[in-house]
UniProtKB/TrEMBL annotation:
Segments forming domain ABC transmembrane type-1: 76-256
Key words of the record: Cell membrane, Membrane, Transmembrane, Transmembrane helix, Transport
Residues passing through the membrane, by range: 31-50, 84-103, 115-136, 142-164, 205-231, 237-258
Organism superkingdom: Bacteria
Organism: Rhodoplanes roseus
InterPro entries: MetI-like, MetI-like_sf
PROSITE patterns: ABC_TM1
Keyword flag Transmembrane helix: yes
CDD domains: TM_PBP2
Name of the protein in question: ABC transmembrane type-1 domain-containing protein
Cell location: Cell membrane
Coiled-coil regions listed: none
Length: 272
């Protein structure tokens, strides 16, 4: 169907483009479900008279966020900044390793099994070692974030570089194209969906890595605030920090999604 039809009170119909209807559906359904869950949460806490120390209501959490937004913002800035730095470094490292694995059989045979092996190690068990090696500053949290975030980018990017139309590669070679020309014109554009899929996963892992580091040793950040509030049985503050962390994660994830849209537009324009 090219259009979606919405009935009106007068019996007339309003036709929306299919893309618009799909966009409204993709936004409206998750938002509606979230509002339904929040309403049920608020009703359950009110009716059952659950103590705030066990589970604060959404309204009380929202009130705390509004009244203490300055403190929450102060702690959100270092967490968001460190997550972004870790993600960028993980992306650079992951794409570089994927290129090496794609173009070198020796590197692929040597690196790939070890990458899979390291991925099987419980990452949280290694977090204290990063503190010992790199200290209690930002560098240990960023390094740990990179450590757990780069693997999805390596795997996804390698798959994208390898899953290229062989006929296109033969055509390029028959036209005496250099490897750099093949990479920039064929392999990299074809791998973009894979790369951004890995980046979206890596973005969430980068945030997790920073939060784990803040749990262990930090004097600022949302992870520190969550641990500090939990130790004082201040569940409302912990939940407020988690909500702000979710918004920070959505912001960073949205930037990755925007980068994907922008890259697709650029390469689509170049194709024509």
């Amino acid at each position: 169907m090219a259009n979606a039809t919405i009935g009106t009170e007068t019996g007339a119909s309003l036709k929306l483009p299919e893309g618009t209807a799909r966009g409204l559906r993709s936004v409206g359904l998750p938002l509606g479900l979230a509002l339904l869950v929040l309403a049920a949460w608020q009703i359950a806490v009110t009716v059952a008279k659950i103590p705030p120390v066990i589970l604060p209501s959404p309204l009380s959490i929202a009130q705390y966020i509004v009244s203490r937004w300055d403190i929450l913002l102060m702690h959100a800035v270092p967490t968001t900044l460190e997550s972004a730095i870790g993600f960028v470094l993980a992306t650079v490292l992951g794409v570089a390793l994927a290129i090496l694995i794609t173009y070198s059989t020796l590197a692929r045979d040597a690196l790939y099994p070890n990458l899979v092996f390291f991925q099987l190690i419980p990452k949280i068990a290694l977090a204290p070692l990063f503190i010992i090696w790199l200290g209690v500053g930002m560098q240990s949290r960023v390094a740990f974030s990179v450590f757990i975030a780069f693997f999805p980018i390596v795997i996804a990017t390698t798959a994208g570089f390898m899953n290229v139309d062989r006929n296109m590669l033969r055509l390029c070679r028959s036209l005496t194209a250099t490897e750099w020309q093949v990479f920039t014109a064929i392999r990299f554009p074809s791998a973009l969906p894979y790369i951004f899929s890995g980046m979206k996963i890596a973005m969430t892992l980068a945030i997790i890595g920073v939060i784990i580091g803040e749990f262990i040793t930090a004097q600022a950040g949302l992870g520190y605030l969550i641990i500090f509030a939990t130790a004082r049985a201040d569940t409302e503050v912990s939940m407020a920090a988690i909500v702000v962390l979710c918004f920070a994660g959505l912001l960073l994830y949205g930037l990755v999604a925007f980068g994907e849209w922008l890259a697709n537009r650029i390469y689509s324009a170049e194709a024509f």
